[in-house]
Amino acid sequence: MPTFSRSLVWVLALAAAACSDGGAGGGGTGTDPVARVEVTAPSQALTVGSTLQLSAVARSAAGSVIAGRTARWSSSNEQVARISETGLVTAAAPGPVRISASVDGQSGFTDLTITAAVAAVMVVPDTLTLSPGATRQLTATARDAGGTPIANVAIRWESANDAVARVNSEGVVQAVAGGTVQISAVAGTVRGSATVRVSTPPPSALRFTQVWTGALHACAVSTDERAYCWGSNASGSLGQETGETCPGRAGEPTACSTTPRPVAGDLRFKMLALGTRNGNGHTCGITTAGKAYCWGTGAYGELGTGTADDIRRTPAAVVGDRAYTAIVAGDAHTCGLVSDGTVFCWGENTRGQVGSGTTFGDPVPSPAQVSTPARFVSIAAGGNASCGLTAEGKAYCWGNFDGGTNSNVRAPVATQAQSTFRSLSVGGNTFGGHYVCGVTTGGDAVCWGRTSSLAGLGNGTMSSETAVAVTGGGASAAVSAGNDANCILATDGAVRCWGINAYGEAGDGTTTLRERPVPVQGPAFRSVSARWYTCGIGTDGFAYCWGRGDFGALGAAAPDRCQANPNDVAVPCSTRPVRVRGQD
Length: 584
Prior knowledge:
CATH topology of the largest domain: Methylamine Dehydrogenase, Chain H
GO molecular function: guanyl-nucleotide exchange factor activity
Protein name: BIG2 domain-containing protein
Number of helices: 1
Distance between the termini: 79 Å
Helix content: under 10%
Organism: uncultured Gemmatimonadota bacterium
Number of strands: 51
GO cellular component, one term: cytoplasm
Keywords: Guanine-nucleotide releasing factor, Repeat, Signal
Strand content: over 45%
């Protein structure tokens, strides 16, 4: 194509260029002949409609800048790009073009490429769904107003929210967390985008590692160390408002939950304890860091907040900067074990169950150290009594228990059990006798004390000052003494229970009084908790409950109706284990 030359002359600012030139020979004179012309462009590419300022420098044979000379600019194709007398290029159409500058018969040039203006950026795919952690390659194509692809266009990638999905400089998207985000490809001021949806994985099925029963509510710790509770919430013992009601004993609506509800707050628990006073009770727990929290009714100071007559519907920290390794609860008192073997108790002290050696009667709303030189490795509580077990397997008890006499003891005394133990559990309630069951170092289940229920000590007797073997209690892993219900967990996972069984708490499919343990008609278990009804964690990982089920205490639909005697109103119950809701 013939070269078009402008007749207009641009007077070079060579004096300025000479001042900045560092070439050999310094600046040339106006009489020096021009040996070459250098044309400089900030960029070799332009888009249609854009401009670019070029510069030209005349040099002598020695390389010196020659000032005061004039130059003519020309374009090899003015249909593609025009050049002004000052060296300003205006891009007119896509294509290659050479821009030349001539001084005294010598010429220099630069080659430019004019591309179409980007009218749109297309991203493919424009919609996709990824799982967290997955990656996907996106591609972006710049197009002109006619839809024709434009090559060699610089693309910048952006994510509107890196917390949902990130994108690298090559357009590779990585999903991070559930949500929707726009991933954009940007060319200059023009952008295109793709909608990326990151799927939220379905919540893991709820599973529990341990469960504890009270009078009318139960609580469990899940596999992610959160506390869940269900049953009566009349006094806030579930740890949050549920918005659900159940018929009360007189038919009145009572706050409750018929399915496990997470306790309020972002606390992680390793152990819980449930009180049973007046059927409402309180709940306490220790976090994975050992901090104690309590909630529910605190009329006797059993919440440990420093105040009696207190109700907390969400977890409240127990006063004192102590780290506890275990926590247990009776009817209206709570005890915590510290790593050095000392025990602190708080709450009702009418029978000396706090164990501090203080006068009976006054509530103890803050943790008080149990008065004993003995050091314990585990503790237990129930009704108005508490017990501790030493490293040697020796049992000490205090409160409304002393062997079989049920006298009130203000500080721990060694029991007359005449056995050494691996674990202990305290049964009984405010209105009757107290007894202790345990697993001996030989693996036998035994009980001693005095029961207030017709079920007795599991061998047909009602009381004993020394430990007596529970019928069929050999090869035991644990025993749970409640009052209406008592259970043995065998080393093979079988559970055998005994109790009044008016509401099916023995789990054998009947409502017949069981003075001796009978097999529970359910799965194998790895833990069990008995109070007024029974719950356990099966070896299949599911939580099950059985017995009296009003107020949603079973955490599941109760398939049966039970009554203690013909004159009582029949209430929901289950005579066999039923799976707690929310675990499917």
